[in-house]
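Fold description:
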Amino acid sequence: MTMLLWGLIGYLLGSIPFGLVITRALGLGDLRQIGSGNIGATNVLRTGNRGAALATLLLDSGKGAIAVLLARWLAGPDAALVAGGAAFLGHLYPVWLRFQGGKGVATFLGTVLALSWPIGLIACATWLVTAAVLRISSLAALVAAFGTPVIALLAGHPALAAVAAFMALLILLRHRTNIARIRTGTEPRIGQRR
C-alpha cells in the first residue's frame, strides 16, 4: 500500500504540465498548437520566450526530483524509486491532458539526479557533451538515457539501473519520429530553425 501511495503521489506530481501552464499564463498561446505540439521546454523555446523555456526545464526536472526526495524522506529508498518512476510516467502520460504528455528528458534527468546525484551528473554531462559535438538534442537525450542504466549498473546500483532502463525505453518510444528524422538526416540541429 505504501508503494502504491507513493506511485500515485509521484504520478500526480509528474503529470503537472508546467510548459502548458507557463505559456498560457504568459499569453503565449496553447503550446499544443505551437511547433511540435510537445509540452516540454524545447517546444516552449519555439515561442521565442527563453525565460519560459528555462522555467519549464527547471520545473519539469524539479517535479521528478521532488517526488523522489519526498518519498525518500518519508518512506525510504524503495519508495523513492517508485515515486521517481511514477513521476516520469506522469509527465509522459498526464491524466489532465488525455495522457498526451512530453518526451520526458528533463523529468528523467531530474529524477536520476535526485536518486543518485553522481549518476545524475554523469547523465547531464553525457547529454551536454553529445549535444555540443553532434548538435542534435534528441540524439543527446537518447545517448544520455541509455548510458544511465549502464553507469548505474557499473556503479553497483541495480535497482536504479532497472528504473533508468525503464525510463530509457519510454524515452526511445517517445522519440520515434525524431529517430526516423535522424536516420534520414532531416532532424533539426541545435540552433537551426525548422
